[in-house]
Amino acid sequence: MKKSRIVIIGTGAVGSTTAYTLLLRNRMDELVLIDANADKAAGDALDMNHGMPYLGGAKVWAGTYEDCASADIIIITAGAAQKPGESRIDLLKRNIAIFDSIIDQVLLHTRDAILLIASNPVDIMSYRSWKKSGLPANRVIGSGTLLDSARFRYLIGQKLHIDPRSVHAHIIGEHGDSELPVWSLANVAGTELQLSAEDKNEIFVNTRDAAYQIIQAKGATYYAIALALDRICTAILDDEGAVLNVSTLLQNYRGVSDTYLGIPCIIDRNGIRSTLELDLTDQEQDLFTQSADKLKNILETLDN
Ligand SMILES: NC(=O)C1=CN([C@@H]2O[C@H](COP(=O)(O)OP(=O)(O)OC[C@H]3O[C@@H](n4cnc5c(N)ncnc54)[C@H](O)[C@@H]3O)[C@@H](O)[C@H]2O)C=CC1
Ligand SMILES: CC(=O)C(=O)O
């Protein structure tokens, strides 16, 4: 049987934490680490290999783009990260140049892998990767608002004293400042959430601004995104049909086309099987349209 292989490009804080998370959870047979700083990737691989007596038997090595040839999933976490006070969009120029060269090098070796993008601004980087690669959109996935939805569910759970795994609630739109909460559909076991308008506002603001708070406190966020990326990889490798709020190409989705945004998607071995159309209120629809317009305006400023 073919061995399952995940390649991670960019083994900084997010990439190395994701590698470690995948390894601890025994998600694949082979894990390849690539970084522009080859010493960093080599050091991470060595460090993780020294834990092998206590792990599940996966092979881990610092590799090259040639190793993408038989990858099932290529996770891209390379590039600049926000400094305190910077927005995700502030990273755009730096990360577009890095991405263009990464996608070119990946395509020299494979057109079969699923690309899973996490670098910011993630919706724009995912769109760019899809457009530049010419791969089918179902195989170019952004982490989107999966992390934001996890933060949202955690904060709702805290307020209600309910396990976040039992909270069903979505953040959609940009992974960034224009994202929106879908309060009208949020529920626990199908029942309406018992939260005041003030509680809801506090929960949403803390969700939207979580990255700013964490970056201010310790310089970067990486544990929760690593778990979110692990969740997407599992949905793919185990052919789950899981519903996850990832960033995908929208075509005629609630009036939005030709941009990547976070919405609920069904994910299986082929990547994104289909999207689920949420029944938004008028106010939610307005916010969703505004989020899409913001990203489309930015996309229009980019060269081809
Ligand atoms: N989608 C999400 O929810 C999240 C996204 N991020 C984003 O992930 C990205 C990475 O963040 P961190 O790991 O904290 O940054 P980092 O600075 O710790 O790591 C970035 C790594 O990319 C490498 N790199 C740069 N150019 C490269 C190239 N051309 N080829 C290969 N590797 C290259 C660097 O050497 C470095 O090791 C950032 O854009 C950040 O904003 C971070 C957290 C959550
Ligand atoms: C950095 C980032 O995008 C996040 O933690 O949400």
From TrEMBL:
One of its GO terms (biological process) is glycolytic process. The modification Phosphotyrosine is found at Y212. It catalyses: (S)-lactate + NAD(+) = pyruvate + NADH + H(+). The active site is at H175 (proton acceptor). Beta-D-fructose 1,6-bisphosphate binds at R153, H168. GO terms for cellular component: cytoplasm. One of its GO terms (molecular function) is L-lactate dehydrogenase (NAD+) activity. It comes from the Bacteria. NAD(+) binds at residues 10-15, 35, 40, 65, 79-80, 95, 101, 118-120, 143. The keyword Transmembrane helix does not apply. Allosterically activated by fructose 1,6-bisphosphate (FBP). Keywords: Allosteric enzyme, Cytoplasm, NAD, Oxidoreductase, Phosphoprotein. Its EC number is 1.1.1.27. Homotetramer. PANTHER family: L-2-HYDROXYCARBOXYLATE DEHYDROGENASE (NAD(P)(+)), L-LACTATE DEHYDROGENASE. Belongs to the LDH/MDH superfamily. LDH family. This is L-lactate dehydrogenase. It comes from Paenibacillus paeoniae.
